[in-house]
């Protein structure tokens, strides 16, 4: 069964939960990402999601009368992704909670800030997650695409550092981007990049005379190019370090087709996916704790449903 955050919100009767989900939906990635429930064949719930990734596509051919087709099969590789638990907690003195509400509701403020950090953590793991390095993370698409046919790495970096560079190289950049797009098995739902690349991308499109429509239904600026959305994934939680890094002046653009047969999320069955725990004012103790928690992972069903263009020099 697949479910989206919009559907999770519709199923929830709790106003606070609905507001929290709305904060997560300010991310175009999370808003459009379908989540598959994790269900064992014999029933029940598990934190392990087992699936087959299509790695060799089927072929078709012609044959002569009284001749047989040459047998060929689509090939898949079994993968297991384990759902991970992430979020955060905050603590407030009960006097602050009860008596300091003139300027700001401290519980609501801390809750909103923690939701935004959790959203950023999902973004970070969606791209950079590596369970081999950090066991508590799920694997992201950067790891999955390494060495694949949809990892496009130009021989030399495409220089888009200055306005003059963009004037000279915008066609080279678009050719490389479309080469990556052509390697995918369908139009990407999203192109994802860092904030600096997002600005350069707009400058390239200005020179190409391509209109990028603004999408107003998200918290951050999101643009549309054809049927695909363009977004900046922002920074790692609690830092000013971009999720999609710029290293030695070079960065990358990721693309993903979000679908149950492409790139999708995984969540526990029967779960609201995102949970909040508010400070309990009825219990003793001067310091009260609140939490935001999400249990999820990412699955890449087909290697060609995601791609990356590397070696774009912007700094």
How is this structure best described in words?
This protein has helices spanning 5-11, 15-24, 28-32, 94-99, 106-128, 141-145, 163-183, 195-208, and strands at residues 2-3, 35-38, 48-56, 75-82, 84-93, 151-152, 158-159, 190-193, 213-215, 222-225, 228-232, 250-256, 263-268, 274-277, 287-300, 306-313. By secondary structure, the chain is of the alpha+beta class. Strands 6, 7, 8, 9, 10, 11, 12 and 16 form an eight-stranded mixed β-sheet that branches. Strands 1, 2, 5, 13, 14 and 15 form a six-stranded mixed β-sheet that branches. It has a two-stranded antiparallel ribbon with strand order 3-4. β9 (213-215) and β10 (222-225) form a beta hairpin. α1 runs antiparallel to α2 (15-24) and α7 packs across α8 (195-208).
CATH topology of the largest domain: Major capsid protein gp5 fold
The shape, in one word, is: globular
How many discrete domains?
Answer: 2
Give the beta-strand count.
16
With helices defined by DSSP (H or I, 4 residues minimum), what is the helix count? 8
Second rung of CATH, namely the architecture of the largest domain: 2-Layer Sandwich
What is the CATH H-level superfamily of the largest domain?
Major capsid protein gp5
- Low confidence ranges: none
Q: End-to-end span in angstroms?
A: 44 Å
């Amino acid at each position: 069964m697949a479910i989206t955050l919009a559907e999770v919100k519709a199923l929830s009767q709790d106003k606070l939960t609905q507001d929290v989900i709305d904060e997560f939906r300010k991310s175009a990635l999370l808003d459009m990402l379908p989540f598959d429930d994790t269900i064992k064949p014999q029933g029940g719930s598990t934190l392990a999601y087992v699936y087959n990734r299509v790695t060799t596509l089927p072929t078709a051919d012609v044959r002569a009368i009284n001749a047989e087709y040459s047998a060929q099969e689509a090939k898949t590789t079994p993968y297991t992704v384990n759902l991970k638990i992430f979020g955060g907690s905050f603590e407030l003195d009960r006097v602050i909670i009860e008596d300091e509400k003139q300027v700001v509701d401290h519980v609501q403020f801390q809750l909103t800030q923690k939701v935004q950090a959790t959203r950023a953590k999902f973004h970070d793991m969606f791209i950079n997650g590596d369970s081999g390095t950090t066991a508590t993370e799920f694997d992201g698409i950067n790891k999955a695409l390494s060495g694949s046919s949809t990892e496009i790495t130009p021989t030399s970096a495409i220089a888009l550092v200055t306005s003059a560079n963009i004037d000279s190289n915008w066609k080279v950049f678009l050719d490389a981007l479309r080469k990556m797009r052509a390697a995918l098995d369908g139009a990407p739902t999203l192109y994802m990049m860092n904030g600096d690349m997002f600005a350069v991308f707009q400058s390239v499109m200005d020179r190409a005379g391509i209109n990028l429509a603004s999408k107003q239904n998200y918290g951050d600026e999101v643009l549309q190019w054809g049927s695909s959305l363009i977004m900046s994934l922002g920074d790692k939680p609690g830092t000013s370090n971009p999720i999609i890094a710029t290293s030695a002046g070079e960065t990358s653009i990721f693309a993903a087709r979000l679908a149950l047969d492409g790139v999708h999320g995984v969540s526990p069955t029967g779960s609201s996916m995102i949970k909040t725990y508010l400070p309990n004012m009825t219990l003793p103790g001067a310091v009260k704790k609140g939490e935001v928690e999400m249990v999820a992972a990412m699955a890449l069903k087909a290697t060609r449903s995601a791609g990356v263009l590397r070696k774009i020099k912007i700094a």
